């Protein structure tokens, strides 16, 4: 898995587009895995700081328990769609692993002050940006170990 900074280094244009969509919408959808392996989706906020991607959670939240048990996760950010497909900013999906920060010094250095809350650093395995360009659906992706690719569909 790669840090956000490593992803940016490998795919700078895609990283810039992903950041633009992610920054425009505060709330994202986080997918985690329940104990029985079935999916769970939760609202979340994501922060980029010091070249890393971070997730926080209130103490005792089920999404935090899911991530402690199985760190695999995905985040989806979609932009507002209007009547003009060409004006759509697209959506961003990323997948990876969320590793909990339990060291008190790291926790404090990240600016976490809420007692009992959770902090996770996201290691990125894939990022996908989907949008419409002219009359084509454009899917641009980066996968760790593979690099960047683009698909177009009419």
Question: How would you sum up this structure, described in words?
Answer:
Helices cover 22% and strands 45% of the residues. It has 154 residues and is of the alpha+beta class. The chain has four helices and nine strands; from the N terminus they run ααββββαββαβββ. The N and C termini lie far apart (32 Å). The chain has one domain: Electron Transport, Fmn-binding Protein, Chain A (Pnp Oxidase, Chain A), CATH 2.30.110. Strand 3 and strand 4 form a beta hairpin. The chain is globular and about 50 Å long. The mean pLDDT is 93.
Helix content: 10-25%
The unreliable regions are: none
| Number of beta-strand segments | 9
Any idea what the CATH architecture is? Roll
Keywords: Oxidoreductase
Protein name: Pyridoxamine 5'-phosphate oxidase family protein
Domain Pyridoxamine 5'-phosphate oxidase N-terminal: 28-126
Organism: Nonomuraea salmonea
Quick structural summary:
The chain has 154 residues and is α+β, with helices and mostly antiparallel strands.
